[in-house]
Structure formats: structure tokens, C-alpha cells
Write a structure and sequence with these properties.
Length: about 140
């Protein structure tokens, strides 16, 4: 049990890297440009320049991780990004992932402008572009089998 706690706290301090194991959580202090690029590479959608990571919870190792992420999209790029996401073919499905009890995963807290569910290889991906308290937020969920 001590080993698990030590690993958990080490991961909170050092972040979620491709070589790490399960249950990694990043916040805006530990969510780096490299982590953001891992999300981009995993879901196959280019995010606007200036997008920044707010939170990431991943299970597994990138590029094979299942994860949820909360990103902030620059306000001046939001409308164009919404049009880009609207162009993604939407599947009439949901992406099932037992989202852990994290206070930040709340797409319903704002106004959802667009939602898309699609497949990327063997993965299911779900995106929500929301407006929350004057900020443009992108929620990303990816589940790998």
C-alpha cells in the first residue's frame, strides 16, 4: 500500500509521461506542451495555437492511454475551432469511460456549442466545446480497448 501511495504522489508531482502507469492526474501547473501534444496525437485533431491544458487524467500509457482532459481554447480561435469540429462526422454513440470523481469534468456546467463522438483507430473519442464563464473549454475523452 505504501508503494502505491508513493507512486501516486510522485505522479502528482512529476506528471503523466509516456513511461508512467495508471491513474495519472495533471493540473494546469503540470500539464506541459508535451502532454498537450500527446492528446493531439491520440485524438487526431489539431487544436488552435495557444490552447493550454488545464487537467488530464489518464489510465495506461500514452499512446495507448484512456484519458479525459480539460483544455482552454483561446477566445479568438473558438469560432473557427467549432466549425472545424462540426466538420467531424458524428457517431450516434457515447464513449463509455468510468470517469473518476474529479471536480473538473463537467461539460454540462457551461453551454455546449458542439459535441462530437468518433472513432480513431480502435479508440472512441468524444469532444465537447463549451463556453464556461467567458472561457472556451474543450473536454476530451478517449477510450482505448
Amino acid at each position: 500500500m505504501r508503494v502505491v501511495l508513493v507512486l501516486f504522489f510522485a505522479c502528482l508531482l512529476f506528471g503523466c509521461r509516456a513511461s508512467e502507469n495508471y491513474g495519472m492526474h495533471l493540473d494546469e501547473r503540470t500539464f506541459t506542451a508535451a502532454h498537450l501534444q500527446m492528446v493531439v496525437d491520440s485524438v487526431g485533431v489539431e487544436f488552435p495555437s495557444g490552447t493550454r491544458g488545464l487537467h488530464l487524467f489518464c489510465v495506461g500509457r500514452f499512446p495507448d492511454a484512456s484519458f479525459i482532459a480539460k483544455l482552454e481554447i483561446p477566445s479568438d480561435a473558438a469560432k473557427k475551432f467549432i466549425v472545424q469540429i462540426e466538420g467531424v462526422k458524428h457517431l450516434d454513440a457515447t464513449v463509455a469511460f468510468n470517469v473518476p470523481s474529479v471536480s473538473w469534468w463537467r461539460p454540462e456546467a457551461g453551454v455546449v456549442h458542439v459535441e462530437r463522438v468518433f472513432e480513431r483507430g480502435m479508440s472512441g473519442v468524444q469532444l465537447y466545446v463549451c463556453e464556461e464563464k467567458g472561457q472556451w473549454i474543450l473536454y476530451v475523452k478517449q477510450v482505448k480497448p
